[in-house]
């Protein structure tokens, strides 16, 4: 296909340096992962699915299963997990969640796959959960930054996550690399860390502290940090409004459901324009670029994978590292974003899978060695 050839040949970068994580003490596996992800953008784009091996449409907790594997024979290349359960709960429940996540992470790593971590953590200073609930939620970001009244509370949350990460290791005792994506969709206001609930300086300060504390105080050196606002921006200036700086980010991306068919509304030119903004910044700063969340709930469009998603993400000039679609709920009959056997988009997804430009777990080279 002509556009696939163009995709492989496109993607000029003005950044002249050797790709390297922002953490100068990153483990050798993390450094190799970062270089390999950069190189893989010349071949194609990794496909990811949130909570893919934890549960799926009508099932939960089955070993080595995913809806994607049931359809294609391969797990996604990228598996999304969440650190939401590692704070704000009784210690016994946190320990149970740690055990659960440790198995998901190590199993994925041992198969050669990649873990990306979102963080829907409940507001530590009020009720309302991770969403903003008017009259209940507190604007907590400003109270958690260094020097503020709840800074120690935030440090205790990070310490618990760091302690967990120190226990997640490969067979040789090496810390398992992951992409960590905190404060996602920070340009919207539906989460308590969102735009209407803190200033740009406040969220940037909290982000910078998060990276430096995990890296320098907690000795966590296996994380790549991803910046992923939602799709509200129209320019690079708007995209970077809450960006913490190149020294604190390894990957730039965006979450975008609105332009890809949500509520029956498609605006693929807008989606492409925003991806081009992300890619252009990645090119000049030496960062990875990704479509960090997207999807169409229930996938009613039988050709959504090839005619909507693929045609957008393989536009010449884009060199996205991965695209991740959201989860398949285990009980809801309609809340799913990847096909399962018998779902209307299954044949198109198989066509999507079979293309050389889409990379699934079975297609991956050794990500963690040079």
TrEMBL record:
It is an enzyme of class 3 (hydrolase). It comes from the Bacteria. Its EC number is 3.2.1.78. SUPFAM superfamilies: (Trans)glycosidases (SSF51445). Coiled coil: none annotated. It catalyses: Random hydrolysis of (1->4)-beta-D-mannosidic linkages in mannans, galactomannans and glucomannans. One of its GO terms (molecular function) is hydrolase activity. Residues 1-16 form the signal peptide. Residues 28-362 form the GH26 domain. The active site is at residues 185, 293. Keywords: Carbohydrate metabolism, Glycosidase, Hydrolase, Secreted, Signal. It is found in: Secreted. Belongs to the glycosyl hydrolase 26 family. This is Mannan endo-1,4-beta-mannosidase. It comes from Flavihumibacter fluminis. The lineage of its organism: Bacteria, Pseudomonadati, Bacteroidota, Chitinophagia, Chitinophagales.
